[in-house]
Amino acid sequence: MELNPVFARRLYLAFLVEEMERPNVPRLIEATGWPRRTIQDVIKSLAGLGIELAFIQDGRRHNDGYYRLTDWGPFKREWVEERKRDIVCTLEG
Fold first, then answer.
1. List of residues 6+ apart from 48 with CB closer than 8 A
2. Which of 37, 71, 73, 91 is the S-S candidate for 52 at Cβ 3.0 to 4.6 Å?
């Protein structure tokens, strides 16, 4: 299956946010190897696909916390999970 790399990146990050424990930007950088700015841009772009994230404040500073996926929007989590290998191949490729 051929996917658009931008679309694949967004789906993959949403999947990671849901799968990881307490995913924040540094953990997502570690998991993906992507630059900080890419992670931040993809997080901001998810709302445009209908995927909703919430930032859970967990600390004294305003940016201490993690993300939680609250709604997959028009996507089914199962569909993304079934195609995870295709998504990763698109990103590597």
1. none
2. 71
